[in-house]
Amino acid sequence: MDKKISRRETRLLLFLLTLFLGLGHLIAVNAHRGPLFHVNPAAVQKITVHSGKCAASISNSTAITDRERIEEIVRLLNGFTYTEQEELPLMAGGCDSLSLAVPARSIRIAFGDNYVRSYRQDGSSVVYYGPSQYFHGLVQLAEEAFVPCAE
Questions:
Q1: Measuring CA to CA, which residue among 29, 17, 69 is closest to residue 47?
Q2: What would the pLDDT profile of 81-93 be if each residue is shown by its tens digit?
Q3: pLDDT given for residue 21 in this prediction
Q4: In Å, how far are 57, 116, 142, 147 from 52, measured between CA atoms?
């Protein structure tokens, strides 16, 4: 029994197939994007923002203990969504970072205006890029913490 498919049904099938493939592509392309952090602000006791301009001095930091400010920074971290990532080999040099003091450990996160960097045990790292100027406020905090290195 041969049943012919009408032109209208063919167009509908082609439309549905195109829609399905388009949605599949969209999901595949965006599958790696998403939040990196799930930090509970109540667990953070203190945040220390470090300037990466001079590795020779440990005085290039500022401590934040104000609850509202801690919650604001943690919300910023938790809200960061990356759009691309890059793996980097072992690299020297400093960058701005912050340390989150939580019970029994400290979490250190390197950052720039639009990225965060995660270091691996072998010294290599992964940089996650997001919206332009997303961390600009944190970069300004690190700038304020910077004390020029002694020559």
A1: 69
A2: 998 888 888 765 5
A3: 64
A4: 10, 13, 8, 11
